[in-house]
Amino acid sequence: MQAEAQIKCRNLWKVFGANPKQFLKKHHGNPSAEALNEEGYIGAVQDVSFDVNQGEILIIMGLSGSGKSTLIRCITRLNDPTAGEMEYEGRDLLKLSDRELIDIRRHKMGMVFQNFGLLPHRDVLENVAFPLEVQGVPKADRVERAKQMIELVGLGGRESYFPRELSGGQQQRVGIARSLAVEPDIWFLDEPFSALDPLIRAEMQDEFIRLQTMLKKTIVFITHDFEEATKLADRIGIMKDGRMVQMDTPEQIVLNPADDYVAEFAKNAPHERIVSVRAIMGPVAADAVGSVESTAKIGSCAEQVLTGEHPVAVVDPATHEVVGSIDRHRIATSIFGRRAA
Amino acid sequence: MKYALKGALVAAMMAVPGLAFAEAESDDPIIIVQNNWTSQLVLSYVVGKALEAEGYTVEYAPSDSQLQFQAIADGDMHFQVEAWEGSMKSAFEKAVENGMVDAGTHSAATREEWWIPNYVLEKCPGAGSWQGLDRCAEMFATAETKPKGRFVGPPADWGKNYADRIDALEMNFEAINVGQAATLWAELQSAYDRKEPIVLFNWTPNFIESKFEGQFVDFPAPSAACNEVKEWGPNPNATGDCGAPHSGWLKKAAWSGLAEKYPGAWSMMQNIDFSNAQIAAAALMVDVDGMEPEEAAEKWIEDNADVVAGWKG
Amino acid sequence: MTEVMAHRPSEGLSLARLPGWVHFALIMVAGVLLSLVWEGATRWPEAWVIPAEPWLTGYIEWLKNDATIFGVEFKEITRGIGAALKAPVKWAEYLLYRGFKGIGLGPLPWVAVAAGVIIFAHWVGDWKLVALCVFSMIYLAVFNVWKDSMKTMTIVIVAVPMAALLGVVLGIWVTRSRIAERIFTPMFDLMQAIPHMAYLAPVAALFAFGPVTALIATVIFAMPPMARCTILGLQTVSSDVLEAGQMSGCTKRQALWKVALPSSKRTLMLGLNQVVMQTLAMVVIASIAGATGLGHKLLYSLQQLRLGVAIEQGIAITLIAIVLDRLTQAYAYKETDHFAAEKSWVQRHKHMLTFLVILVVSYIAAEFYRWVNIPPSKFTYMVDGEKVTLFDAKQLARTIDAALREFNTWAYPYINPIRDWTTINVLIPTRDFFLWLPWPVFVGVIALAALRLGGLGVMLLCIALAMSFIVTGFWEQAMKTTYVVLIAATISVLIGVPLGVLAANPVLLMPPILMLIGIIEIYQIVAWLLVPLTVPDIVIFSTTIDIAVFATIAVLAVLFLALSPRLREVIFIVFAIKQIVDVIFWILSLLITLISSIGGGDVSGFSAALMSGLPSAAWIVTALLLLRGVGDGLFQGSPLVNLAQFFQSVTRVILSTCDTLQTFPSFIYLIPAIMLFKIGDFANIFAIIPYAMVPAIRYTYLGLKRIPPVTVEAAIANGTTPMQRLWKVELPVALPEIMLGLNQTILFALAMTAITALIGSTDLGQEVVRSISTQNFGRGILAGLFIAALGIIADRLIGSWAAERKRQLGVA
Ligand SMILES: Nc1ncnc2c1ncn2[C@@H]1O[C@H](COP(=O)(O)OP(=O)(O)OP(=O)(O)O)[C@@H](O)[C@H]1O
Ligand SMILES: [Mg+2]
Q1: Is the pLDDT of residue A340 over 70?
Q2: Cβ(A246) to ligand 1 under 6 A?
Q3: Do B222 and B171 belong to one domain?
Q4: What's the sign of the alpha-carbon dihedral C375, C378, C382, C387?
Q5: Cβ contact, residue pair B193, C676, below 8 Å
Q6: pLDDT attached to residue B272
Q7: Calpha distance A33→C36 (Å, rounded)
Q8: What class has domain C76-334+355-373?
Q9: Which of B18, B65, B152 sits opposite C679 (nearest CB)?
Q10: What is the CATH number assigned to the segment(s) A5-108+184-269?
Q11: How many CB pairs lie under 8 A apart between chains B and C?
C-alpha cells in the first residue's frame, strides 16, 4: 500500500539572518546549533526530509517556534528555502518560473491561515471569489462557484457581510471557503482552528472531517492540539527546534516515541482511540471467547473485553486468521498504565 | 456599448475646449498683472476694461510685486500698470536687462520718506524736520533699540538702506526693517490708535493719506553731489547725508512681444498716463467708500471718459 | 547613561568611561578655548567661505537660459510640462468660473454647485455632514467669497488628485525599489522641511509664471504626506493578508492593486486628508506665484489692514478644507448597501438624478436670474417697499476690525511691559548667546548627541548638515533661526502637550480640578466683596451676574438633588466646566499680572478687571461647550447629559481646532501679533506658536491613545490613582510618541520662520523671502535648504532617541 508521494522534501533548510546562504556554505550545509547561535542566525527549518502522499492528511506538530509554519511556507514558496530540494508531482518546486508558480498556486494549492488573512475591504462573496477573480474567471461563473463554497461551509446568506461583521469562526470558514474555491489538489492549513473557542473548534473539526470525506484532498495541517491531530491525521510529523524528530502514524508515535520530547507530546493522548488491538495483543490464547479485528482501536473493544471474564481472540481482518488475544489486564495498562507513570 | 458611450463622451469633452481654444487663437488674452494694493488693482481694471472695450480679450493674473517682472520678461504676463521706483527699482531693472520693456513713465510722481503722524508734533514740535526729530529720538525707543529711537523701515529687499543714512546724518536712531508693507501699516495703526510716537517709512500715493493724518519728515534735499562728495551736506565726513527725491518715477512695464502681437493695444498702453490726483481718486473709492476694485474701475472710467478716449489716439 | 557606558566594552580609553555630561562639558570648553586662540572658530574665515550661492544662482540661470538635453532646450521641456499642466487647470477654470465660451455655456451656477455638494454629502454621509455642507455653502455665499472660492477651487481640484496620485505612485515605487527608496526618502524630508517660499521663484522661472507655478508648488508641498502614508500603509499590511493573496495566485500587480493597496485604505485615507489640508494651507502662498482666488484677496485685505475681511476669507479657506476632507473621508468609508440589488434603478440613482435635474434647471434659470449664477453681493429683502439688508459681511468685518483695534488699545499697556521684559531679559540674551557660540561647540555638541543617540552614521550626517551653513557663510542667520525656533517650540510643547493629554484623557484631569473649584469659589466671593471699591461698574455687574447664576444653580441643586441623580450629574458638570474655564482665565490673568508688574506696568485696575470681568466670558464658553455635550447626548438618545459623551466632545473640539489651525492662513495672525507686540522676535514667536502647537497636541493625543489597554488596566489593578497613572505609566510609555510630536513641532516652527519673515526678521526665513524679490535663486534655495538642515538635524536626533526608547519599551 505504498501511496504515491505528491510532495517530496529533501534536506530542507530555512535559515533566517543576515546572509543565510553564505552561512550555510561556510558550515558545509550543516551548521551546529552553537554555530547558529553564535553568529546570530535562526535555523527555523533544519535538514528536514519527508514526503506527503497523495490523499493523506499529514499533521505537523511541535512547540511554538519549532518551525512548523516556516516549513509549510517553504513548500508553498511563501518563503524560499535556504537549501534543499522540493518536488511537487515530480516537478522541481524551486526551479519554477514566477508564472508557473502562480499557476500552481492558482490551480493546485490552497491555504488557510492562522489569522484568516481575509481581505478587509471585500465582503464574504468577494473574498471567496478572489482567487477566481485573479485567475480571470468570468464574473458569473466565479460568483456561482463562490456561492457554492459559502454554502458548503455553512455561511449561506452572509455573502454581503464584511469580515469585520463576522465572528472568528465565521471568518475562518470564509478562509476555508476561499481556499477551496479553486478546487486545489493539496490543501495547507496553518493552525486553522487555534483562534477559535473550544465549542466552535469542535464543530469546525467535524466540519473539516465532513469536508474531507467529500473532497478527499491531500492535506498538510498544522496544529498544537494532539487530540485534534489524532482525530484527523493519517500521519503526524513532530518538529523540534527546526528538525523533524519523528514522522509516523499516530499509533507509532504513541507507542514508539523517538525521544522524550515526542513522548511528552503523546503523553496525554487518548490511547484508546489511537492504539489498535494489534499493538498490545498477547499470544493466541486457548480460552478466548469471541473475537475483535486486529486493526480495531482498543477503545472500540474495551467494553467487550472488560466486561467479559475471558480474553478475546484477535483476528486479522484481511486473512480472517486468529493472530493473538487480548485480555483485561492488557487493556487496563494500555489505557491507564502510562498515564499513571 | 458602455465603452462606446464613454468614448464618445470623452471625445465630446475634448472637442469643447478645442473649440474654445480655437476661437481664442485669433485673440489670445492679454494678461494684466494685479498686485495687492488698491490703486494698482483699480488701475489694472481700468486698463483692462479699456482694452476690452476695444475688443481685446483680457485676463488678470495676480502676482507678487517682485516676481512679476521676470514673468513679464518671459511673456507669461503682459502688462503692469504700476511699477514703483521705491520698492521695485532693482527687480524692474534686472527684468529690463532680461528683455522686459519699459512702457513709459506716468506723470504721477512718487515720494518715499520718513513719515510721522501729526500727533507726534504735539509731543515733539520739531519732528517735522530731521534735526528736530533726532532731538526727540528717545521718545521713539523700544526695548530692542533703547536708548536709540526706532525707525520702522521698509522691507529689506526694497533696496533702501536707511541704516546708512542714519549713520551719515549721525542720527540717534536705529532702523528696524519690516518684512512686508502690511507690517508697516499694522505698526502705524496700532501706534495711531494709542497716539504713541512712531516714525516709519511711507510713500505717496497710497491709501494711508486717506486714513491717517501725518506728514513726511524733511531731510536735506537730495542732489547728485550728496552721494559722491563727502563734504556736501550736514556731515562733512560722509556721503549719503540727504533725503530721497521728492519725485520718484512710476512706470509701466510690458512684455516685448506686445508691439508685434497687439499693435493697437501696445500703442494704447504707451499712451496711458495717470496723474497723482487720478490715482488718489481711484484708490479713494475703494479705501474710503468701500467699493470693490472692479466697481471702482467702472466708475473711474465713467468719470474720466475723455482721458480714456485720449489713450486711443 | 552612565550605566550604558559602564556596560560597554572598554576600548582602552579611560575617556570613554566618563559620564556623559563630562563629554559635553569637555567639548564646550575645548570649543571656547579654541575660539580664544583662533578667531576662525567664532566666525568662519571669510576666505574659506564656499561660494555656493553664486554657483547655485548661476546653475539655475543656466538651466533656464542655456541648458539643453539631447538637443532640446531644458527650458522648452519645463515649459512644455507647464503647458501640459495648464490644460486641466484651464478645464477647471471653464467649469468653475469662466464658462465654456466656445459653446456659449456659462460656468456651473452656484446653486448647482451648492446643491451638488449638499446632495453628495447626503449620499455619502449623515445629517451632520449635510449640516456642515449647508452651513459652509451659505457661508461662502453670504460672505461674498463665492467667486473667489471657485477660483481657489480650480487649483485645488487639480492639485489634490495630482498630489494624491503622484504620492501613491512614488510611495509604491519606494516600497518596490531600493534605489527609489534611497533617492526619495530624503527627498520627501527635504520637500517638507524646505519652506515653500524657497522654491516659488525657481519654479516660476522654469515653468512659466501663473496658475501652473502655483499648482506645481502646491503639489510639491502636498504630495510627500501621501507618499509617506502609502509607504507606511503598504509596509504595515498584515502579512497574513498578503500571503493569502499570494496563495490565491495573485501576480505581483494583482497583489498590489487588489490586496495591498485596498487593505491599507485607512492609512491611505489619512494621507489624502493630509493632502487636502496641505493644499488648502498653500492657498495663500500659491497666490504669490500666480493663483487667483481667496489667497490673493486675502493678501489684499491684509495689505489694506482689513483684518475682518481677511478673517472671513481665512475662515472660508478653512471651511473648504474641512468640507473637502469630510466629504472624501465619508465617501471612502461609505457603508455598502446590502440591499442595493433589490432597489429600482431610480432609487439607486436618486442622488445623481436629483443633481442632474437641479443642474439643468439652474442653468436655465441662470439665464433669467443672475443670483442663480452667482450669489448676490448683498442679501436684501423688501419691507414696505424699502430694502432691508439681511446680512452684511462688510459691516461685520468692520465690526471685527474695530473690536480688534479696541482690544489692542486696551490690552497694549498691559502687554507691552511683558513684551519688553521678555525681550530684554529672555530673548535678547538667548539670541546673543547663540550668536556668541563658537561654531565648533555647536557642531561638537550636536555630533556627540548624535553619536550617542543614533551612532556613527547619524553623527556624520548631522556634522555634514551643520557644517553646510557654516562653510557657506550663513552661520549668523542660522543661529537666529535656531534661537527663535527653540523658544517657540518649547512654548508650543508646554501648551500643546497638556492639551493633548486633556484630549486623550479628559476625565483624568478632573480630581485636581475639582479640588481647585472650592478654592476658586471662595476667592470669587472675596473678590466680589472687595471689587466695588476699586473697579468700574461693568465689572461689578458681570461679577454679580456670575454670582447670581451660581446662587440659582445652587438652589436648583438643593431642590432637585433628591429627585434625580441624573440632574445632579448635570449640575455637577455645569459647575465643573464653568470652573475649568474660569481657572484657565484666572491663571492667565495671574501670569499677566505677575509678569507685567515685573516689567513695571500699571496693573491694579487691569488685573482686577480680568479677574472679575472674565467670568462672564467663561460662562459663554461654558454654555457653548455644554450645548455641544447636551446636544450630542440628546441626539444619541442617551440620557440628557452623559459624562463620557461630554468629554468625548471636548476631545473632538480640541482635535477639530487642530485641523482648523492647520489650514487657517497663518498670515492672518501676523497682523494682530504686530499690532500688539510690534515688530520683533516676540511677535515672531507669538505667530509661530498657534501653528507649531498642532503636532504637539496631536502626537500627545495619539501617543496616549495608543498605549495598549492592558498596560493601563494593569496599572489600575495595581491601585494607582488616575494622576499616578498619568505620570508614572501613561506619559512615560507615550513619551517616544510625544517626542516625535516635538520633532514635528520643530519642523513646523522652522517652516513658519519663512512666514514670520513678513513681520520682519533677520534669519534664514528672511533670506528666503528676500530671495523672491531679488530673484537671487541661489540664496533663497540655500537658505531654504539650511532651514531644512536644521529640521533634519532635530529630526535625526529626536527620531533616534524615540526609536531607541520605543525599542526598549517593546512598542516599535
Ligand atoms: N521572517 C522571519 N525572520 C526571522 N525569523 C523568523 C521569521 N519567521 C520565523 N522566524 C523564526 O523561525 C522560527 C520558527 O518560526 P515558525 O513561525 O515557523 O514557528 P511555528 O512553529 O509556526 O510557531 P507557532 O506555533 O508559534 O506558530 C522562530 O524562531 C521564529 O522566530
Ligand atoms: Mg506558526
Answers
A1: no
A2: no
A3: yes
A4: negative
A5: no
A6: 92
A7: 60
A8: mainly alpha
A9: B152
A10: 3.40.50.300
A11: 170
Residues on chain A touching C336 (C-beta within 8 angstroms): 123, 160, 162
Q: Is the pLDDT of residue A177 over 70?
A: yes
Tell me: do B115 and B223 sit in the same domain: yes
Residue B240 within a domain? no
Lowest mean pLDDT among A220-234, C258-272, C354-368, C509-523: C509-523
Pairing of strands B250-254, B79-84: antiparallel
In this predicted structure, what is the pLDDT of residue C56?
83
Say if residue B136 is in the same domain as residue B35: no
Is residue C259 less than 8 Å (CB to CB) from chain A?
A: yes
CATH number at residue B268: 3.40.190.10
Quick check: C244 and A133 CB within 8 A?
A: no
**CA distance linking residue A221 with residue A213, whole number of Å:** 16
Chain segment C96-152, per-residue pLDDT in tens:
888 777 777 778 888 899 999 999 999 988 888 999 999 999 899 888 889 899 999
Which of A73, A121, A130 shows the shortest C-beta gap to C248? A130
**A46 in ligand 1 pocket by Cβ < 6 Å?**
no
pLDDT at A337: 62
Strand-by-strand arrangement of the A57-62 sheet: A109-112, A186-190, A218-222, A57-62, A235-240, A243-248
Same-domain pairing of B23 and B47:
yes
| Domain parsing of chain A, residue ranges | 5-108+184-269, 273-340
**Closest CB to C249 among A73, A134, A160:** A134
- In the three-class reduction of DSSP (H, G, I as helix; E, B as strand; rest coil), residue C137 is classed as helix
**Pair (B81, B145) in one structural domain:** no
Element (DSSP H or E) covering residue A322: strand A322-326
Q: Which of A148-152, C397-401, C492-496 is the most confident on average?
A: C492-496
Are residues B104 and B126 located together in one domain of the fold? no
| Residue C12 pLDDT exceeds 70 | no
Per-residue cell: C239 = 502579512
Nearest to residue B294, comparing CAs of C297, C545, C577?
A: C297
C772·B90 Cβ contact <8 A: no
Fold agreement between A5-108+184-269 and A273-340:
no
Residue C360, pLDDT above cutoff 70: yes
Higher pLDDT, C567 or A178: A178
Percent of residues, chain C, with pLDDT higher than 90: 16
Q: How many domains does chain B have?
A: 2
Residue to mutate, A70, A80, A241, A243, ligand 1, most ligand atoms under 8 Å from C-beta:
A70
B295 belongs to a structural domain:
yes
Contact C249 A115 (CB under 8 A): no
Q: What is the CATH number of domain A273-340?
A: 3.90.1280.20
DSSP type of residue A218: E
Same domain, B218 and B284: no
Nearest CA to ligand 1 atom 17: A69
Q: b or e along B224-258 (b: 16 or more beta carbons within 10 Å of the residue's beta carbon)?
A: eebeeeeebbebeebbbbbbbbeebbbbbbbbeeb
CA C253 to ligand 1 centroid distance, Å = 28
Instruction: Tell me how far apart the 2 most distant CA atoms of chain C are, in Å.
Output: 99
Distance from the Cα of B236 to chain C's closest Cα (Å) equals 32
For C209, which of B16, B71, B94 is closest by C-beta distance? B71
A64-110 confidence digits (pLDDT tens)? 889 999 998 899 888 889 999 999 888 888 888 888 888 888 888 88
- The pLDDT value recorded for residue C555 is 56
- Which of C719-728's residues contact partners 24+ apart within 8 Å by CB, and which partners? C721/C511, C722/C507, C722/C508, C722/C510, C722/C511, C723/C508, C723/C511, C723/C512, C725/C508, C726/C501, C726/C505, C726/C508
ipTM over 0.95: no
Residue boundaries of the structural domains of chain C: 76-334+355-373, 508-663
Is the Cβ atom of A290 under 6 angstroms away from ligand 1?
Answer: no
Out of A272-286, B188-202, C240-254, give the one with best mean pLDDT: B188-202
Residues B21 and B88 in one domain: yes
Does B203 reside within a domain?
yes
- Residues of chain B with Cβ-Cβ distance to C756 below 8 Å are 179
Please tell me the distance in Å from A174's CA to the nearest CA on chain C.
12
Map grid coordinates 441643586 to a residue.
C557
Domain that holds residue B269: 2-109+248-312
User: Please, which pLDDT band fits residue A136 given cuts at 50, 70 and 90?
Assistant: confident
